[in-house]
Amino acid sequence: MRATLRRIRRPGPLVALSIGYLVLVSGIMIWRGISVDPDYLLLVMVPLALLTGRFFAFLRDWVPFIALFLGYEALAGVAPKLGIAPHIYGMVRIERDLFFGRSPNQVLQEHFGDLRWLAIVCTIVYFCHFLYPLLVGLVLWLVNRQYFLRYVAALLTMSFAAFVVFLLIPTAPPWWAHNVGALPGVHDLVSRSLPSKVSPYFRQLDADRVAAFPSLHAAYPTLGALALWRVNRKTAYFTVPWCFIVFFSVIFLGEHYAIDVLGGIAVAVGTWLFMTYLVFPHLKSLSAQDGAEDRVVPEDEVRAGQTASPPAASPPAASTPAASGQAASGHDQPAELHIPGQTRGAEAGIEPAGEPGKSLKR
């Protein structure tokens, strides 16, 4: 039993199991008409936290994150109460100027609006707005806690920056423009396909319905792809098609203009570059030199004898051509998934190096 549990708790199987579990549960929630909200998802992830053997570490890292995330959603309800008229006709004019006289929303709904199955699929993608960023965060938390903290910091910074834009420049979605006669033929397909019930917390909020620009539906998957790039580039490549599926869905459903999507991509890229090069290097807990191998590994996964006595010293890393080449390059390499408690040296049959009197850091 313990051997099976050790195999499951390896980063690779654990990440795959977590993704499958969350996708399955979220699919059941959507099927039953329950909105996939962050407060529900936090409860859904509790069994995964217990499986990792680091339940209290999960609470330490995730409860503040979800609390701030829900706090942001509560603040978003402030914007409609300010009485600032939303921008409607200006957005339509910009769309038509950029796209040769017609809005992409009109073109997509004119050609595909009668396909009910497509509207349902795109609505399911639309409902994954909260699932995707939390799923990316869970993968990062299981593989490398430092990258998880970076991602959370960037995600919250981007969300609150977008909130300032929503507050000062409220923008109505395309279906709203249709209702006032500014953009004929663009309907709210979400309400026609899969209506859902939100959680009691979100039911109490006065949701901001004039927060189309920039599109956080486009910004969240873009930021997730950038964060995963530093950990595993193959996984990041896999998220690129999802980004374009989201972009298509929100435009087709009439929830965002194409310029909203472009704005969301720009906000995500700008936030990630700002945090990576101007903020993270000045924060010790998030800098590249600190905690680069801080993985979430349960204590009972540590191999016997590794912490009881200091390991034998191995030849300096610079003595090998590969190590010296890496040192000379000076560039960060993407983190790879390794078996907990095992280093690259152990994989090759070489005892890992360590300082006298100290145990290896896991």
Distance between the termini: 23 Å
Q: How many domain modules?
A: 1
- Share in β-strands: under 5%
User: What is the arithmetic mean of pLDDT?
Assistant: 76
- Structural class by helix and strand composition: mainly alpha
Structure description:
The chain is mainly α and 362 residues long. It has one domain (8-282). Helices cover 60% and strands 0% of the residues. Helix 8 (116-127) crosses helix 15 (233-252) and helix 14 (216-229) runs parallel beside helix 16 (258-279). The two termini are 23 Å apart. The relative contact order is 0.13. Mean pLDDT is 76; it is low at 289-293, 297-315, 317-332 and 337-362.
Any chance you could write out the topology, listing elements then pairs?
Elements: H1 2-8, H2 11-31, H3 38-44, H4 46-52, H5 55-76, H6 89-98, H7 104-112, H8 116-127, H9 131-143, H10 145-168, H11 174-179, H12 189-193, H13 200-204, H14 216-229, H15 233-252, H16 258-279, H17 321-329, H18 344-347
Q: How would you sum up this structure in a few lines?
A:
This protein is mostly helical and 362 residues long. The protein has helices at residues 2-8, 11-31, 38-44, 46-52, 55-76, 89-98, 104-112, 116-127, 131-143, 145-168, 174-179, 189-193, 200-204, 216-229, 233-252, 258-279, 321-329, 344-347.
Labels describing this entry:
362 residues, mainly alpha, 60% helix, 0% strand, globular
